[in-house]
Amino acid sequence: MFLSAKIGKGYVVTCAMISAMLIVVILCFLAANSWQAFSQVGLGLFGWTWNPPKGQFGMLPMIYGSLAVTVIALGIAFPLGIATAVFTSEMLSATVRVYAKSFLELLAGIPSIVYGLMGVAFLSVFVQDVFVLLSGRTILTGGILLSIMILPTVITLCDDAMHHIPMSYREAARGLGLYKYEVVKDVVLPAAKMDILGALLLALGRVLGETMAVMLVIGSLDKIPTPFWNVLAPGQTITSKLGREMAEAAFGSLHFEAMIAMALILLFFVLTLTVVSLTYFYNPEGRLYE
Amino acid sequence: MNRRLWNMFFVLGVWLAVAMCGVGLVSLIGVIAWYGVGAINLDFLLTGSQNFGADGGIFYQILGSVLLIVGAGVICFPLALGTAIFKSEYLANAKMQRLCAVLVYGLNGVPSIVFGIFGLVFFVNILDTGISWFVGSVILAMMILPTVVLASFQAMNSIPVIFRESAYALGLNKWQVIVRVLVPQSIGGTVTGLLLGLARAVGETAPIMFVATAFSGVSTPGSLLEPVTALPTHILALAQQATDVHALQNGWGASFVLICLVMMLGALGLMSRLQLKGAR
């Protein structure tokens, strides 16, 4: 009888140790396998050109691409998402809201590769025609596709943030004779500010780490366009670079290790975001949104 | 008057945003359904693919995806349950709780491609397992672990204290309380988390494309150590030859089937969640 308790505790402790160590193991293995790149290439990793045969492993074009795509995606998705969330949370009746939310959950579940297929089949052609380009696979296309992809998540999170604010706040504001606009601007949004910021961080992490959709539409050119705000040129993000080139590099070569170094930098970015959002926006009852 | 004007602009702006989102998102679903249903017939679902996916069906891709997530579920379930029990019942220290939360949430934030690269380095290159069904399942299980642990932990943590007190009063020891009272009461939460996690795992491409799948020429894997072929990587291969009309059409069909799989798992998960709420 006591033996079973001991075995049980052993099992539970082992499981917990494995789960907790996974992230540490991932970090350690990535670090160990990129060590050569950091020691041999050093600051050259943050150079302007990526050309493995010549031993140039500058990842600035990829970092630029990731940032540009993120800025475009969040710049489109957040204004639209917050405005739509104002609608679902403040203007819709409770019954319709449930349907709208279910529809959004359904959309949030569509795999990213399907968005990639849509991007290849429609969005890149659309961008090509509208801006009269040689190829529709540009940084802008990637950004727009990502914004469509995170829109359902952004709306859901912002809607939750606003809906959690007690009704009495709004009633008091309406009682003072404020218009709907003023209720939202002066009462609801300030009260929901922290949760909306949390949503922003979550969406940021998701956009930075997204691979498949971006990889198919961004054009895969390791160059910062000139001038640098010309987002109608093809580019490359960290994730699309990894997805395209990882299988081509031989294990143990400097090329391979430089790729791992790039993955490590991406992971470092995203983990920092996670720790920040845990520190400032920790919600023990919260759900995990991917 | 000025205030009223602003209010009108505001309402107009909101409606404009809603119209843009609504049209965009509804047409998204519409396009997938339209092209997807058009590409599907019984033949497509039940035959293997030919000519790098441009001809033939997707039977082995569906089978491979199902095999991958079954493997992931089998690996993830005991691990997540054990971790949740430890987190809920053995970990009393608030600091350790917090550390545990950081580690688990941190794992949830890891981009999917990084899981794929970790699998490539650790399993395929260092342990030399080769590209296989088993490695793909392990990587997917790692990816969904946080979701399952959290759902399981929340279910277990919300069991009223009186259940535990009654069980202890009957003379059960800690492990017996866990096995006889807490696990049966919270297993629904674990299953819900697992189904929702698998709904996400089945659609992921980046974690499995280096470690588990071969693009063509694979039918049924003979053992755990052989490569499989899966729907998401198949769609990727088809999207890269999107100029070919047949390949694109097969891509839509495969996408539609994949979304149906995701929705089925998601609906099962939601049903078990509602059942859980009803039981309480």
Task: Outline the secondary-structure elements.
The complex is a heterodimer of chains A (290) and B (280).
Chain A: H1 2-40, E1 50-51, E2 56-57, H2 60-91, H3 94-108, H4 112-131, H5 139-163, H6 167-175, H7 180-191, H8 193-209, H9 212-217, H10 238-245, H11 254-281
Antiparallel strand pairs in A: 1-2
Helix pairs in contact in A: 1-11, 2-5, 2-8, 3-5, 4-5, 5-8, 6-7, 8-11, 10-11
Chain B: H1 2-39, H2 42-46, E1 49-50, E2 55-56, H3 59-90, H4 94-109, H5 112-126, H6 133-157, H7 161-169, H8 174-201, H9 231-239, H10 245-279
Antiparallel strand pairs in B: 1-2
Helix pairs in contact in B: 1-10, 3-6, 3-8, 4-6, 5-6, 6-8, 7-8, 8-10, 9-10
Structure notes:
The complex is a heterodimer of chains A (290) and B (280). Chain A is an all-alpha fold and 290 residues long. Chain A has a single domain, classed as Orthogonal Bundle (MetI-like fold), CATH 1.10.3720.10. Chain A is built from 11 helices and 2 strands, in the order H-E-E-H-H-H-H-H-H-H-H-H-H. Chain A has a two-stranded antiparallel sheet. The longest helix of chain A is centred in the N-terminal third of the chain and has 39 residues, at 2-40. The model of chain A has no long low-confidence stretch (mean pLDDT 87). In chain B, helix 8 runs antiparallel to helix 10 (245-279). Chain B has a single domain (57-279), classed as Orthogonal Bundle (MetI-like fold), CATH 1.10.3720. Chain B has a two-stranded antiparallel ribbon. Chain B is an all-alpha fold. Chain B is globular. The chains are: A mainly alpha (290), B mainly alpha (280). At the A-B interface, helix 1, helix 2, helix 3, helix 4 and helix 5 of A face helix 1, helix 3, helix 4, helix 5 and helix 6 of B.
